[in-house]
Amino acid sequence: MHISEKEIEIRYAETDQMGVVYHANYIIWLEIGRTKLIEDVGFTYAEMEKQGYLSPVTDISIQYKAAMRYGQKATVRTWVEEHGRLRTTYGYEILHEDGTLAAKATSEHVVVKKDSFRPVSLQKIYPEWHEKYEEIKKREEHGIRN
């Protein structure tokens, strides 16, 4: 399984009055992690958008485990959890510097035409991207890890 990692320095502006990271900031971190994974396997969202496609979130789930605070560093680990004909689900872990799990999450996405918002298959518009996700999935099914 290919797992991307991205370190994030927690900024003061990301915290609430209790001094902990405000819950909505985790969603931003998931996007940062997802973007890193996509770049790591050789593609970019920006190029997809230039070609007239978007990949909106259709579902997101976060379980908060241990608070993070200003001045700490978080590591976002991201992988492809599932990939099908129209949907891709990404998995995430957000870790403290000592490896303690701060949060775990999943986000589900579809690819749509920018002008009509009609869903399209990743395989149809980006066969190489689709094949890379299939390869990652196949490697995971056979217990092979990068």
**Integer tally of domains:** 1
* Termini Cα gap: 6 Å
How helix-rich are the residues, as a percent range?
Answer: 25-40%
Q: Based on CA inertia axes, which overall geometry fits?
A: globular
Strand content: 25-35%
Query: Helix and strand succession?
Result: EHHEEEEEEHH
The secondary structure category is alpha+beta
The CATH architecture comes to Roll
Task: Report the CATH superfamily.
Answer: Hotdog Thioesterase
Number of helices: 4
Which CATH class applies here?
Alpha Beta
Mean pLDDT: 93
What is the CATH topology? Thiol Ester Dehydrase, Chain A
Rg: 16 Å
How many strands? 7
Quick take:
The chain is of the alpha+beta class.
Provide an overview of this structure:
The protein has 146 residues and is of the alpha+beta class. It has one domain: Hotdog Thioesterase (Thiol Ester Dehydrase, Chain A), CATH 3.10.129.10. It is 28% helix and 35% strand. Strands 1, 2, 3, 4, 5, 6 and 7 form a seven-stranded antiparallel β-sheet that branches. The protein is globular and about 45 Å long. The protein starts with a strand and ends in a 5-residue tail after the last helix. The relative contact order is 0.21. The model has no long low-confidence stretch (mean pLDDT 93). This is Acyl-CoA thioesterase. Belongs to the 4-hydroxybenzoyl-CoA thioesterase family. Keywords: Hydrolase.
